[in-house]
Amino acid sequence: MTDLTSPYPTDTSSAAAAADGVKTAAAEKTKRAKEAVSKAVKSARETATEVAQQTRTFAAEKAKVGAAWTSEKAKVAHTAAEEHPIGVAVGAFAIGLGIGFLIARNLD
Fold this sequence. Notes:
Elements: H1 12-83, H2 85-107
C-alpha cells in the first residue's frame, strides 16, 4: 500500500520550528565556511610570504656567485687577450664566420 503521510509538517507551528531549524543549520554552515575560507587565506598568505623570502635569499646568493664567477672569467679572458691578441682576434672572427654561415643557411 502507498503511504499517504506527508514528510512536511501540516500545522504552522511545526512549519515555523522546522524553518527555524533550517535557518540555524544554514547559519552554522555559513559560519564554518567563513572560518574555513579565513584559515585558507591566512595559510596562503603565510606560504606566499615564506616562498618570497626563500626566493629573495636564493636570488641574492646566486647573484653573488654569478658576480664572482663573471669577474673571475672576465679577468681570465682579459689576461688571455693581452697575452695572445692575434689568437683572440682570429678565434672571434672564426666564431663570427661560423655563426654567420649558420644564420645564412637557415634564411633560405
